[in-house]
Amino acid sequence: MKNAFIFRGLSLLAFALLFQSCKDEPEVPTPTDTYGSGVFVINEGPFQNGSGTVTFINRSTSGVQQDVFQQVNGRPLGNVAQSMASFGTQGLLVVNNANKVEFVDLKDFKAVGSVEGLALPSKIVVAANSGKAYVTEWVAFGSAGRVAVIDIASRTVIKSIPVGDFPNAIAFHNNRIYVANSNENTVTEISLNADTVLRTITVGDRPNGFLSQGNTLLVLCAGNPSWTGTETAGAIVTLTGTQIGIATFPAATFHPTNFTSHPDGSAVLYEVNGAVYSQAVPVGANIVPSNPVINRGFYHFSLDPAADGLLYGTDARDFASNGWIYRYERTFSLKDSIPAGIAPGYIYYR
C-alpha cells in the first residue's frame, strides 16, 4: 500500500507539472501582415563585399527594425541591395551583385523563393493587373541592357527585352512600362500585353527618374557630367501620348536627381547642387532653381505617398559605415533622424 501511495503521489505530481508547463507555454500567435504597411529603406551595403540590409519603419509607431531579412532568415540578403516592390503579401527585393530577386512573405519577412541568374539587376516595378514584375538589368558596363519579365506566381523569367545602355529607373504608366537608359538620352516604351518594345523616345541626356501625373509621364534627365568630356544641362521631359515637351535647366552645371512629388500635388521636387527645389507643373520651357525648400542634399530623397506621409532623405555618409534617414514634415521642417544600415538608398513605401 505504501508503494502504491507513493506511485499515486508521484503520478499526481507529474500530471500537475505537465499541466503547469502546458499552461505556461506561450500560445503561437496567428501570423499577421506585420510588414504589410510601412516604409522600407534598402541599404545597399558595402560595395563588392558584405551584404545589403533592409530597415523597416512602422508609420503608426515610428518603430524601427534594422536588418530585417537577416534577423528573420538567419542569412544575409546579399550584395548589393538595390530596390524593392510588392505584390499581394509578397515582397520582391532586387540584389545587384548577387544577380537575383529575393521573394519574402510580408507577414513575417521570411524568404519564400527567388529568381536567380539575372545580370546585374537594378530597379523593379510590378504591373499588378498583369501579375508580372519588370526588372532592369545592366548586363555589363558599357553595353546594352535588358528588362527581365518575371511571372510572379511561378517566380520565373518569362521574357528578356533588349533596351538601351545602363537601364535603371523604371515606371508603370498608362498600362505600359517605361525604362530610362541612363547612359544614353533615350527612354524605352514597352507594351504590357505583348512585352515588346513599342518605341524608343529621345529625351535629355542621362534620364534618371520618372513621375506619373495623370496621363502625363515626367522624365528627369541629369545631363552629362563634366567628366564625360561634353557637359550638358539637365532637363524635365514631358511625355503625353505621342507629344513630347522638354524644359531645360539654365546651365550645363545643373545635374538634377531625386525626382519626387511635392506634398501639395501641384509641383514636383528635385535635387540639384546639394539642395532640394520645387518646380510647378505643368513645366514650362525653362527651369530656374531658386529658394530651395531644403538646403541640403541626399543620397536618395522621396515623398511617402500615404496620407500625411513624410518626406524621407537618406545620407550614405562614407558608404562604409552606417548611414542615416532624415524625415521631414510636409512643410519641409525636419522631424527627426533615424539610423540606417550601410549606404541607405532606395526607399519603398507600402
Task: Describe what you observe in this structure.
- With 350 residues, the chain is mainly beta.
- Among the domains are: 31-80 and 298-350, no CATH class; 203-297, no CATH class.
- The chain has helices spanning 2-24, 68-73, and strands spanning 39-43, 53-57, 64-65, 81-87, 90-95, 100-105, 110-115, 121-127, 132-137, 144-151, 156-165, 167-173, 176-181, 186-191, 197-202, 207-213, 216-221, 235-240, 243-248, 257-261, 267-272, 275-280, 300-303, 311-315, 322-328, 334-342, 344-349.
- The strands form 7 sheets. Strands 3-2-1-27 form a 4-stranded antiparallel sheet. The protein has a 4-stranded antiparallel sheet with strand order 4-5-6-7.
- The longest helix has 23 residues, at 2-24.
* Global outline: globular
Structural class: mainly beta
Which series of helices and strands comes N to C? HEEEHEEEEEEEEEEEEEEEEEEEEEEEE
Q: How widely separated are the two ends?
A: 70 Å
Helix content: under 10%
Q: Approximately what portion of the residues adopt beta-strand conformation? A: over 45%
Which strands sit side by side, in order, in the main sheet? 3-2-1-27
- Mean model confidence by pLDDT: 91
Rg on CA atoms, Å: 25 Å
Strand count: 27
The profile of the biggest β sheet is: 4 strands, antiparallel
Model regions low in confidence, pLDDT < 50 over at least 5 residues: 1-31
Helix segment count? 2
How are the elements arranged and paired?
Blueprint: H1 2-24, E1 39-43, E2 53-57, E3 64-65, H2 68-73, E4 81-87, E5 90-95, E6 100-105, E7 110-115, E8 121-127, E9 132-137, E10 144-151, E11 156-165, E12 167-173, E13 176-181, E14 186-191, E15 197-202, E16 207-213, E17 216-221, E18 235-240, E19 243-248, E20 257-261, E21 267-272, E22 275-280, E23 300-303, E24 311-315, E25 322-328, E26 334-342, E27 344-349
Antiparallel strand pairs: 1-2, 1-27, 2-3, 4-5, 5-6, 6-7, 8-9, 9-10, 10-11, 12-13, 13-14, 14-15, 16-17, 17-18, 18-19, 20-21, 21-22, 23-24, 24-25, 25-26
